[in-house]
Amino acid sequence: MDDSKGQQAQGKKLTPSAIAKYLDQYVVGQDEAKKVLAVAVYSHYRRIGKQRNSGIEIAKSNILLIGPTGTGKTLMCETLSRILSVPFVTANATSLAQSKYVNEEIEALLQRLLEKAGGDISKAQHGIVFIDEVDKLKSSEGEQRGTSGERVQHALLKIMEGAPARLADGKTIDTTNILFICAGAFVGLESIASVTHAFGFISVDDADNQQILDRLNSRVKPTDLFSFGLIPEFAGRLPVVANLQNLSKEFLVRIMIEPRNSIYNQFREMLREENVELEIERVAFQQIAEMAYEYKVGARSLRGIFEEMLTPVLFLIPDRPDIRKVLVKSLFEEPILIANS
Ligand SMILES: Nc1ncnc2c1ncn2[C@@H]1O[C@H](COP(=O)(O)OP(=O)(O)OP(=O)(O)O)[C@@H](O)[C@H]1O
Ligand SMILES: [Mg+2]
C-alpha cells in the first residue's frame, strides 16, 4: 500500500472529503457509505480532546454498514483503519458467537485497542472498534432464547453503552467514547423492509421532495432490524445506517482496473518482474464482469476468473524468456504471446 498518501492524509486536514478521497483510491463506488463513514470518523476526531465551554456534550453516533456480500464493507473499514491516527481494532462477530468465552474475547479486544494506543488509556478510550458480520448474531424465530448470537449482542451492548470494562491486568477502560462501526450483509433484510415500506408511511405530491422522501422511505428502520433478529437495544445503539449497493457490471470492471492494488495492477506487476508486459483489452474485463455478476457474490469472484484466465500464461512464462508481451483480447480466446524478434 501507499503509505505516503496515508501519512499525508493523517495531517490536520483529515476532513470528510479527504477521508472519502483516500477511500476512493481503494474502494470503487459506494459513495453514500463513504460519506457516512467519513463524516462519522471526522466528527469522532473533533470530539476528542475538545473542551466545550457551552457545556453541550456531542454524543457519538455508532454506524451500521449494510450491503450485499462482496460489495466492499470489510474492505472499506480496513482501508479506513490505515489512515486514522486513532487506535482501531477489528472483531468478527461470527467468531465471537462461536466462542464459549465471549466476555473474555471482548476483554481481549479492548486489550488490543489499548496496545494499539501504545498503552495510553485515554487514547484507547477514544479509539474505534469495527465489528464485522454482526448479522450473524441474529436470533431466529423458533430458536430458544439466549442463543449464542444473542448472548454476544448483550455482551457487546455493555461496551457500546459505555460501561467501564476491566482488563486482565487490572486496568479499566471506559468505553463511553469509543466509536463502534458494525457491518453485515443482512441477507433477507430487503424483503422485511419491502413489506414494512409497502404501507408508504410518508407521501407527497411535489416531485422535488419525492426524491428526498424516497430516500427516507428506503431507510432501514430499527424495526426492520428487530424483525431480522437483532435485539432492540443492540439495533438501537447503531443509529446511523449506511447502505452499500450491489455492484453493477460497470463497477466490477472498474474494480479490476482502477484501485491502487487492483487485480490488473497486481498481475501486471507479477509479469513485469519476469520482464513481460501484460495488456488486457476492455472486452475481456467486461466478459469477466458478466460472469462474476452471475455468481452474485459481488466482486469476490473476480479474482478467481481472472486467475484462471492467466494460469496457462503464468505456467509458461518462466520457461520462455523470449516472450516480452502477453495480450488478452477476450476471455474466450487464448492469450497472444508476443516474442522478441
Ligand atoms: N467497492 C469495491 N471496490 C473495490 N474492490 C471491491 C469492492 N467491493 C468488493 N471488492 C473486492 O472484493 C473483495 C471482497 O469485498 P469485502 O470483503 O469488502 O466484501 P464484504 O462487503 O465485506 O462482504 P461480506 O458481507 O461477504 O463480508 C475485496 O477484497 C475486494 O477485493
Ligand atoms: Mg466482510
Radius of gyration from the alpha-carbon trace, in angstroms: 23 Å
| Count of DSSP H/I helices | 16
Bound molecules: adenosine-5'-triphosphate, magnesium ion
**Main sheet strand line-up:** 2-3-6-1-7
Q: What is the arithmetic mean of pLDDT?
A: 86
**For the report, how would you describe the main beta sheet?**
5 strands, parallel
Question: Considering DSSP H and I runs of 4 or more, what fraction of the residues is helical?
Answer: 40-55%
User: Span between N and C termini?
Assistant: 37 Å
The portion of residues forming beta strands comes to 5-15%
Structural overview:
This protein is of the alpha/beta class and 341 residues long. The chain is 48% helix and 13% strand. The protein contains 16 helices and 10 strands. It has helices at 3-9, 16-24, 31-47, 73-83, 93-98, 102-116, 121-124, 148-161, 189-197, 207-217, 222-228, 232-236, 249-257, 263-272, 282-295, 302-316; strands at residues 63-66, 88-92, 128-132, 164-166, 172-174, 179-184, 240-243, 277-280, 323-328, 336-339. The strands form 3 sheets. A 5-stranded parallel β-sheet has the order 2-3-6-1-7, sandwiched between helices. Helix 2 crosses helix 3 (31-47), helix 9 (189-197) crosses helix 11 (222-228) and helix 13 packs across helix 15. It is globular. The two termini are 37 Å apart. Residues 1-11 have low confidence and may be disordered. The structure holds adenosine-5'-triphosphate and magnesium ion. The site of adenosine-5'-triphosphate has 18 residues, from helix 4.
